[in-house]
Amino acid sequence: xxxxxxxxxxxxxxxxxxxxxxxxxxxxxxxxxxxxxxxxxxxxxxxxxxxxxxxxxxxxxxxxxxxxxxxxxxxxxxxxxxxxxxxxxxxxxxxxxxxxxxxxxxxxxxxxxxxxxxxxxxxxxxxxxxxxxxxxxxxxxxxxxxxxxxxxxxxxxxxxxxxxxxxxxxxxxxxxxxxxxxxxxxxxxxxxxxxxxxxxxxxxxxxxxxxxxxxxxxxxxxxxxxxxxxxxxxxxxxxxxxxxxxxxxxxxxxxxxxxxxxxxxxxxxxxxxxxxxxxxxxxxxxxxxxxxxxxxxxxxxxxxxxxxxxxxxxxxxxxxxxxxxxxxxxxxxxxxxxxxxxxxxxxxxxxxxxxxxxxxxxxxxxxxxxxxxxxxxxxxxxxxxxxxxx
Length: 390
Prior knowledge:
- It is a multi-pass membrane protein.
- By secondary structure, the protein is mainly α.
- It has 14 helices and 10 strands.
- Helices cover 48% and strands 9% of the residues.
- The termini are far apart.
């Protein structure tokens, strides 16, 4: 948890503590920017600047300083909207840090870092007197195995028997389309953010802009499942716009009110739906009873083995098979809370931590589930369009 710098008995500015201007990303991250007593003059070297002399520490102040030192709290400094960089040398390597420790504990003795040395680099342009700050701061078969081989061949040809059912619409098709569309949006935001090293504010902008892609994928997948019928596309686009934000964060629903999902949904409705390579039978094929749960084939053998046991209900299974990694992440976050975040005091902070963890787990499930579903969809489409069936 982040705390105000002045929650500790440090020197305060003479004009009083004032909150600095914060952007949307800083607000969502919980950063608090406050003014400091340090003052810099352009192109002027100054040494031994005395700030203040603190009052005698009370028992509560001393206890708080010990707790923050034991919990290894760090102080972040910003100069001209650039982070101050701390350099340390370890084993011949120069390390850079964007913070410095509030204090240190050496042999049960506590020390506070109250003497700071700043080095600010200034670049001057030759043609003008303008100066700019620069941050430092894939078996051979034996005869005894022929019977087993025949059984295996029969099993492996089972996928041909579900040719009339493999593209039968799944249950709750609209919900699947919405979740896949949101997964594309989140995945796209993550990729763009990593490639361009965007900040939190940039992530939000990318999320809103990529609503076009989410609406397009949701509506086109909806039309594909519904064999080209474009009725209800606007409803699917709107639901894709509100589904994830409505679950995760109510404010994002407000930001999506004038949603780019309708723009993407409009182009998705205009684009031709993906034609199935085989015709779906009028009567669904009965799925044979399995000698073992077919779901066990999902992680190891993948989509092909799942179809080989004549189970054509693959739509939802492959979304959740890939998205199930989020369960592990959520369980790990709980483990981290119980055994490593012992400093969180009270149920309020724990609830806030679990809420943010659930938010990220939901996003990870959508993104990874989308990768699994689209990969399976492409494979099934390619398989039945490439193989001649009798």
